[in-house]
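thread: overnight batch results

M.L. [08:02]
morning all. the overnight job finished for the chain we discussed friday. pasting input first so we're all looking at the same thing
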Amino acid sequence: MNAPESKTTSSTTPDSDATFVPRLSSYNDCMTCRIIGSGAFAATGIYALRMARPSAPGSIVGKRIIGGLGVCFLVGSALRWQM
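M.L. [08:03]
and the structure it wrote out:
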């Protein structure tokens, strides 16, 4: 099902075992994009944590799931800011 991977070799030096290694392109957002993206993740995380508080309606299991998602969104906000 998977296609076999081919190695790219140089024709000028037949003894070398050179393979193609793709480079990761550095991607930089503008400051406005970083602020809006991080703010959206943070606001969603805070909202989810607010919905997971004990006095909010819903089951205990549902509140724990929403609380976990809230923490994940806050971590995503911090990671988004670091991009």
